[in-house]
Every structure is written in C-alpha cells, then in structure tokens.
Amino acid sequence: MGFSNVMNIQNKQIKLQLLLIMVVLLISVRPAGGEAPNGRDRFELQGVQVGQALADVTVYDLKGTPHHLSELWANRPILLVTASLTCPIARRQLPAFEQIAATFGANVSPIVLYTLEAHPKGDPSPYADGREWVVPENEQEGILCRQPRTLEERLQRARELKALSGLTVPMFVDGMDDSAWRMLGGGPNMAFLIRSDGTVEAKQGWFNSQTLTQNLSANQMSS
User: pLDDT tens for residues 41-67?
Assistant: First the structure.
C-alpha cells in the first residue's frame, strides 16, 4: 500500500472520529431548563398532562380584573403560551405566536399567560437553584428588573412586555401564588392547546411554532 493511500485512510479515520465527537456533543447539549432522560423536556413531564383537565385557577387581565381560567375556554378551544419580560426565549417567540394566532384565530382563541420572571435582576431565578441568573440578552437589552412582589408590579411587567413586543393577542397574568404556572409545569415558555372542556389536547415544554402549527393543521383537517 502506497504512502498516499495510507494518508487517505488516516484522514478518513480522523474525519470519522471528529464526526463522532460532534454527534456526541450535539446529543449532550440540552436546552435551558433541562432535558428528561427519555428525551422529553422536563417542563413537558411536569404539571398537567395531555388528556387531563386544568384546574379552574384565577388569572387577571391587564387591568387587574380577576377571571376564572375556565372563562378563557368557555366558547372555544384556546391556544395558550406562557411568557415573562425577562425570558428572552419567550420574547423572541412572541412574533411566531402572533403569526399562528393570525392563521388559526378563527378556530382557537390565542392567549399569552404572563408568569413569574424567569431571569430577574437582584432576585433568585426559579430555574437556577436559588441563585440569580441574568442572561446576556437581558444585559444587552437593558431588561434588568426584580421579581414582582405585588400583583400590580407583575401587571406592570406584563404591560411592558405587551408594549415591547407589539403583542395584539389577549394577555392574562398569573396570580402571586403562581398557581397557573405550577399547574402547567413550571416552564418559562410552554405552549398548550386546550379544548373547550378544559382538557389538554397538546402540550409543549418549550413553545415550538412549527410543531404547534402542524398540530393545529391536523386538528383542522380532522374537525
């Protein structure tokens, strides 16, 4: 075997090893919030599951008026996404949610549920084991706010997010006991398709617009 052939074989082996290393790294990378051992996101595994009914907890509109959660799905199914001002992923995803709302708004009611802050400045993050966790995007965009201590403070943060994103779909706010956030699974940017009887049709631990659009299209075709 000539020298050039040996070098070609060695180069192929090196490339194969590099490829294997890249695959291992890609598999080991987990999205913020963690990944369950079976590949499902932990926020998807936590809280209410597909086929289960939501508890009728109290949420608030941006004026501070209380509403039973059941009021939101009383007339037709709802498409619900959770968000907070300090969650950069949620901020980036809101335009995609608006697009889905424009496409399927005749069949479902799109709703954003504002929850506790994901990355407050000066307070522990609910996703960092009691430590402050201010992400670089918030530093760069100057979104440095504390965890609200009162409902009015949380309402104000929700109004700020609505104005910042130009959101047109309705927004409701979780109470200060965080009961809706806990019931849904405790994630910062979850998504749900909820039937008009209050049961969960589909759930995403992290809002994925492409997959959710496919679910909605399938439901349209079958209805």
Answer: 889 999 999 999 999 999 999 999 999
Contact 171, 112 (CB under 8 A): yes
pLDDT digits (tens, 9 = 90+) for 167-213: 999 999 999 999 999 999 999 999 999 999 999 999 999 998 777 76
| Percentage of the residues of the chain whose pLDDT score is greater than 70 | 77
CATH number reported for the structural domain that contains residue 67 in this entry: 3.40.30.10
Residue 6 lies in a domain: no
Q: How many CB atoms lie within 10 A of CB 111?
A: 22
Q: Which of 158, 145, 154 is nearest to 176 (CA)?
A: 154
Q: Is residue 128 part of a domain?
A: yes
- For residue 166, the enclosing domain spans 48-222
H helices within the chain, ranges in order? 3-28, 42-45, 88-104, 136-141, 151-165, 179-184, 209-222
CA 74 to chain centre: 23
Domain assignment present for residue 124? The answer is yes
Place of tokens 């479902």: 108
